[in-house]
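Is this the right way to post structure tokens for a design question? Let me know if I should format differently. Anyway, here goes:
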């Protein structure tokens, strides 16, 4: 019988193992197991915003990512996807690159010049506040036997530095003028791949209305004191059903957190495309 271990990699040299296997293997065989990062950087005047995401799907042998720009009502996006094997250690796909410079302090998000869009950037996220863990996402299929999602996440609020180039015009990213946030999540994730056809279907509410707000933001008082505002609202309703969860907080530099009791959004959207226009 062959040795039932995953292949060895550089991460296996570290003292970080948490299951009796190599780092090539995750703790469950569910194809929905996912590890993701998501980040944004924005000028305080709203003129430019950068977006970045990367996902590793170990049990699907896939690494994918996106990098994009929002400018007024214009959006540019570059997407990439590749097989994870034989290079599971590299956090990059095509021109899209992710690099941890200093754990929990500095992370680099990069989009190299590419033939897809006239867009490139190199931004370094730098933390202002400590990372904050969020409520665990735990969902069950309607009959309760199958766990359909089990996911943990932390977010962190900071600033950005570096540059962005659009259509040949380069703009410096000044940390005094730009804010940046990031998150990191892992576990069995909802809405990954084609829904399985041989399990209890997950359709909790017929004709469902759904609103979600996920919003970490750097705030600065007139005296220069900085703090974080985090708002996470999930509001789901349908015939005979209503579920509303709030996990908002005020986050302080020393790591203390003040939880919010409620979030009540008053937002307006474009009627055609649901683009947020104010609130």
């Amino acid at each position: 019988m062959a040795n039932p271990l995953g292949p060895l990699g550089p991460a296996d040299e570290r003292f970080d193992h948490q299951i009796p296997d190599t780092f090539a293997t995750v703790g469950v065989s569910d194809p929905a197991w996912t590890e993701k990062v998501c980040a944004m950087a924005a000028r305080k005047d709203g003129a430019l915003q950068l977006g970045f995401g990367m996902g590793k799907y170990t049990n699907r042998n896939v690494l994918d990512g996106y990098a994009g720009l929002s400018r007024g009502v214009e959006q540019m996006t570059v997407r990439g996807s590749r097989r994870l094997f034989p290079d599971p250690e590299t956090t990059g796909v095509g021109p899209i690159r992710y690099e941890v410079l200093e754990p929990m302090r500095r992370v680099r998000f990069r989009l190299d010049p590419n033939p897809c869009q006239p867009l490139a950037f190199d931004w370094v996220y730098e933390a202002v506040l400590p990372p904050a863990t969020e409520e665990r996402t735990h969902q069950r299929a309607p009959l309760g036997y199958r766990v359909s999602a089990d996911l943990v996440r932390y977010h962190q609020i900071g600033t950005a530095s570096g540059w962005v180039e659009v259509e040949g015009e380069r703009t410096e990213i000044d940390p005094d003028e730009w804010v940046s946030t990031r998150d990191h999540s892992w576990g069995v994730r909802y809405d990954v791949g084609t829904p399985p056809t041989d399990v209890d279907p997950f359709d909790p509410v017929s004709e469902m209305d759904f609103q979600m707000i996920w919003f970490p933001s750097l705030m600065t008082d007139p005296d220069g004191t900085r703090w974080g505002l985090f708002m996470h609202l999930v509001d789901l309703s349908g015939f005979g059903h209503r579920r509303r969860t709030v996990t908002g907080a005020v986050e302080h530099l020393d790591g203390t957190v003040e939880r919010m009791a409620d979030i009540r959004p008053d937002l307006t959207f474009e009627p055609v495309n649901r683009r947020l226009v104010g609130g």
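Format looks fine. Someone answered above. Worth noting: The CA atoms of residues 248 and 260 lie 5 Å apart. The chain has two domains: 31-190, 205-279.
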